[in-house]
Amino acid sequence: MNFISPSRPKPGIAHSIFSCLNKDSTRGVVIQAATLGLVLAVLLYLFSNSAQNLDRLGLSFGFDFLQTTAGFDISWSLIAYDPSMSYWRVFLVGIVNTLFLSFCVIVFGTLIGTIVGILRLSHNPLVSQLARCYVEVVRNVPLLIQIIFWFTTVFSALPPPRSGYGFAGLIFLNNRGFYMPSAVSDMSGWLIAAVSLILLGTLWFLLRSIRRQQRQNGSVSRSYRIAFALWGLVLCGMALIVGSSLRWSVPALQGFNIEGGMFLPSAFGAAFIAMTVYRSAAIAETVRAGMESISKGQHEAAATIGFSRFQTLRLILIPQAVRAIIPPLANSWLVATKDSSLAVAIGFPELVSVFMQTSVNQTGRAIEIISMVMGFYVVVSLIISYLLNKYNAHVQIKAR
Amino acid sequence: MSEQKLKHFVPTPPRLPATNEQNLLRRIQKRCFNSIGNSLLTISVLVLIYYVAKSFLDWAVFNAVWNAATRRECMDISPDGACWAGVIDWFNGLIYGRYPDEEQWRVNSGVIMALLWLLPLMTRRIAYRNSILISWITLYPFLGAYMFLGGTFGQDVGIIHMIFTSLAAGYFILLYLNWMLCAAGQPSLPERLTPLTSKLFRRGQHMNGFLLVWAVLSILCGGVLAQVHLEPVPVDRWGGLFLTLIIASFAITMSIPVGILLALGRRSKLPVIHWLSMMLIELVRAVPLITVLFMAVTLLPIFLPSGAEPDKLSQVLFAVCLFAGAYMAENIRGGLQAIPDGQYEAAQTLGLGYWLTMGLIILPQAMRLMIPNIMTSFISMLKDTTLVSIIGLFDIMLMARNIANDKNWIGLHTEPLALISILFFVMCYGMSQYSLNLEKRLKAHRS
User: Fold this and answer.
1) Where would I find the ABC transmembrane type-1 domain in this sequence (chain A) (predicted)?
2) Is 0.90 exceeded by the ipTM?
3) Chain B: nearest CA to A4, how far in angstroms?
């Protein structure tokens, strides 16, 4: 505080420095410089230590190890992999497995969660209380315990392949995992994917322009119908060509193991079921909160115009609730992607397991590998939040 | 045409007034059996509940074995039931990990002391509430660490640890003296001490007397503690529920100061501080906890000077503190954003500086607003502590899994997992119900 009085002594140099520091702008610069200096000093200290330690261990920093042969096997992968491939491939295998697991969890978790969330709002007290019990039990037990529970007590307790469960000679379930028939095509997978993408793209474009025209003049011109028919013809043609090149690979018992078909390991099954159940409880709460955020007047208005309960749900409640549900739902999806890293505990070969554990142990390149894994998760979370913001802007109430 | 119709408009007869349906049977009928679909739903739910409850109770209670020496014996007695004998056999391990049997009283008394320290907060008539909480966060850890780690003063216990342990012990005694005085309706301890010390100090500042008595008591406690020899128990023998609770309570207590600093940094107008905090928060929140744990375990030994290799618990505590702090920062930021500008302006008008404004005006309000979110974070931190088992810390999760490796109980997976699931459920559900209760109470206060 400054008490200005005539008898105040003339400020000395030290005093003028302090009064200068008291100015907000100067102080800001000093504080920032000090923080930056401190952070840089700490980083420098850490890096000089790490340089020394790496020297001592005979390692150098760099991403050249990605080209070298990994030399270890991965128990299950969606994309082709064998031990002679490079660490770069290991990274890709980890990413694909992680994304596959999280995708399955997201799809089924959202489905079950929505159903449970709506059941939770049921007028029947038994149903709503049962849904409540499900949600409370599932979300108050740590996910890791649930994953290990499913793995050790359900999937590992299944009988071995020779005496495992089979259904119509097509689907098999045993302590190794789950087998089902899969389609194998002689054509290159890339070609099929590219053609289907083009087909989907044209369909989307067609539908959009039809809808735009319908909005403008209330009817759809004939040229669009012809285009639509053409699209259908191309689709049928593609289906014929692909279908003729398709063969079904059916799993069958050979010796002590089941060969052929598509295989999902039991670690995947356990992680998938545990995570889906856990995620569905969180999503159920999101859905319930979204539904409850709609004012009672909307229910009453729907009842006034004679909507049945299902119609009210479909036409009045859900379209409005979506606005409140989507942001936390997308957040839940992001958490599901991050939670998929817990599958490392039961040996499912996802990114953390194959790259952060095995590869670090094999190469010792901890700094590079950890920054790559963290970079992957950062990119995924940025993409999801970007898409969410786009969608959010799309569904918000637009003020006209 | 339509006008014609409107002329002959016949209103529907008014509905009968709602009768007061207090009859239980009527209510059940109306809510559970009002239509065929609903009746079918009710019946199928009842059947489902019956089968789930019956099979669970059969397994867990009616066919269970409580007394056996090995799992084989369990299987002989009742092959379909739970084998609780193994869990009972390992119960001590589940709670204390590999802590030596004869030293376990120290864990118990340390935990009880932590609870006793907070107990006075439950009473309404107690002065210096905040100081109790702050002392619990700053002083108790030293006393607790001394109890859990053990060692002799001056030999295994470092000089700073010694001083703070004595201070904590002294404070603990003062705390209870003060509480007793307050409970008896007397003036608080510092005020009581004023006449005693007014002769020593020119001005009768009661804090001086309090500090003096505290110092004397601490020296006395230090003297007593120096005579006691507690068998040292290294950190790698800690485990079980005890370790889980240590990690969880560390995460919970440290997340608040770290979170406050990061949140203030993120809201700061100084660009360097803003960007640094934002980058840290976003980076930590974008990655799973398990990668942060792996990072702490593999990178800390590389980044620290060779020779100074921290033990696994310190590495984990570092990771957990960073992770919990980043999540808490976002909660607190939400609270800070909800405070109207008028509060800042009012504080400025009073001539308060930045830290006083934040500490006295803004943060208390922001924290109170965010209590539900903060409690949710606490619950998820408690659940997330199970992850430390992945990097090989013997918390309750890994102890439970290890029972299946014991040669007597080989393959006994389900029962320990069921037990710790129930334990976590009780803790987490209790916390969430408490937070709902707290939220209601605070709302009642505000309106």
Assistant:
1) 95-388
2) no
3) 17
